Amino acid sequence: MTINPLHPQLIHNALQNVPSALFVLTCQYDKFKDGILTRWVQQCSTEPPMVVVAIPKGQPIEPMLRDARAFALCMVRANDRRALRLFGSEHDLEDDPFLSIATKKAVTGMPILPESRLWLDCKLEGHLSPDADCRLYLGQVVAAHMELPKRGSKKGDSIQSPIHERRKSPRSTPATSTTTS
Predict the structure, then answer these.
(1) Domains in the chain: ranges and CATH
(2) Is a pLDDT exceeding 90 seen at residue 134?
């Protein structure tokens, strides 16, 4: 039996199984602030810590990103109506989606959403424009924050560490050997 790995539906189904979360990429330059939703965030280096973020080409935030040379990634819940309303649709650069939000400032000066339980503050290292519908931005993580789950919180409300860090393997306990003479 031969499997055709180039079948578009197989590729789509495989990509749907790659872990993802909903983030608001925020940026501020001069008197302007903006943000855009993205699910495409991936760690790409540990030393120094770096992430790569994909956003659709032609977004009003792109020149601001390049001028500010920094951005923040604020993880939000998938059903966060306010984030979806404020950052999920296209708007003019003069429209400030942060007017109704009291934000915190990250080390780089980027706005941080107050309800974000995980955020990354990044210095922009570069960008790539592949022959695709998105542009890739590479950021060095200079600061981060992560709230630990509260007791009694729902399973879906907590931020989980990777599986290999959460599970204790029965093989990880040292074996004791006895020898008889």
Answers:
(1) 19-148 (2.30.110.10)
(2) yes
